[in-house]
Write a structure and sequence with these properties.
three-stranded antiparallel beta sheet; 4 helices
Length: 148
C-alpha cells in the first residue's frame, strides 16, 4: 500500500504546474478567437453603415433634379453639379468621404463611400484599422402608377 501511495505522490510531483500552462495557452487562444469575432462583427457593422450612408447620399443627390427639363415635362434628369454637391454635403454630415458619379443620361446616381473601422482587439497584433466601403445608387423615375 505504501508503494502505491509513494508512486501516486511521485506522479503528482511530476505534474506540478502542468495544468497552469495548459490553462494559460487555452485562455490566450480563446481571447484571440473572441477578439477576432468582435472585430469581425465591428467591421461588418461599419460596412453596413457605409452602405446605408451611400444609399442615403444617393437619395439626397436624386433630389437635385434639373428644373428646366422637369417643369417643361421633357424628362426627369439630375443636375450634375447640384446632385454631386448634395451627395457630398450628406457625406460630410455623416463624417465620411466618397465619390459621386452620374450616368450619361443623368438618371442613375451612384455613390461610393470609403471609411475605416478602428479595431479593438486586433490592435494588439498590429492591425489598428481596417478599410470598409459602401455603395449606393438611385435611379430617377417618374410616373403615377408605374415608372415611365
Amino acid at each position: 500500500m505504501r508503494a502505491v501511495q509513494a508512486l501516486w505522490r511521485s506522479r503528482l510531483r511530476e505534474d506540478r504546474g502542468g495544468i497552469a500552462v495548459y490553462t494559460a495557452i487555452v485562455t490566450i487562444a480563446l481571447l484571440g478567437i473572441i477578439g477576432l469575432a468582435l472585430d469581425g462583427a465591428g467591421k461588418l457593422r461599419a460596412t453596413e453603415r457605409a452602405d446605408a450612408v451611400a444609399m442615403e447620399a444617393a437619395r439626397a443627390a436624386g433630389q437635385a433634379i434639373d428644373p428646366a427639363q422637369a417643369v417643361t415635362g421633357e424628362s426627369l434628369r439630375a443636375d450634375p453639379e447640384a446632385a454631386a454637391a448634395a451627395a457630398r454635403a450628406y457625406l460630410a454630415r455623416a463624417g465620411t468621404q466618397g465619390s459621386v458619379s452620374l450616368s450619361a443620361d443623368s438618371t442613375q446616381l451612384t455613390v461610393t463611400v470609403s471609411d475605416t473601422y478602428a479595431t479593438k482587439f486586433l490592435s494588439v497584433a498590429g492591425i489598428s484599422s481596417m478599410g470598409v466601403s459602401g455603395h449606393g445608387s438611385a435611379r430617377l423615375l417618374h410616373g403615377v402608377t408605374q415608372p415611365e
